[in-house]
Amino acid sequence: MNRSVFGVMLATSFVVSSPAWAIFNVQVLGGNRDAKFSGSGYTSDTLKASELRAAAHVDPIPLVPIAFGLGVSQTTFDDKSTKLGIDKIDGVDIDLEVEAWLPLELAGLVPYAKVGYTVAGAYSFEATPIGGVSPKFVYKPSGVTLHVGLKYEFLLRLGVMAEFETGTRTLKFDKATDVGNLNFSNLKDIDENSTSILIGVQAGI
User: pLDDT (tens digit, 9 = 90+) per residue, 190-201?
Assistant: First the structure.
């Protein structure tokens, strides 16, 4: 075989190849979320949060690049919202996810996308003290998220990943605590629009 032809074939095998197939994968990512909350005619400034996300997916159909799974996000917001009268926000989102990826690697990189639907979780809002009390409000989230990213697998099914996430959720009022003699039984829903940039690792079997 001509050496130049062999060299081209060898180089092509490194640039474009099939990724290692995993029946089950686990992902752990961390990064930042930017979000705006709106409700009752008010909209917060863009609030920044640290986000930790874990997900697990099962690929039930061999050689078909689609997987189904569950993702959980924990967010802790660093900023106060003076427009909403909120001093602290902590959130947990539990999402059902569908993940799809290109069946070919490009220089070891695998583009992928995920669509998620938030089915459970809780957001805790701690209000600015009112009349000597600091009310806390709990909301239940639901909504849709879209994730796009790149994976780089360097040890069989172990790799690193970078992900951009955008989400639109509705937070439904659940309960209020530490309210003293104040009445917050008729609080309206809150909308959350967010974007996140995350990096992490994936392991598959």
Answer: 999 999 999 999
Dist. CA 117–CA 54, nearest whole Å: 15
**Domain count for the chain:** 1
Q: What is the chain's percent helix, strand, coil content, to nearest 5? A: 5, 70, 25
CATH number at residue 147: 2.40.160.20
143: three-class secondary structure by DSSP: strand
Give buried/exposed letters for 163-194 (b at 16+ CB in 10 A, else e). Answer: bebebebebebeebeebeeeeeeebeebebbb
Any domain includes 5:
no
Domain presence at residue 1: no
pTM of this prediction? 0.82
Instruction: Give the domain extent around 77.
Output: 20-204
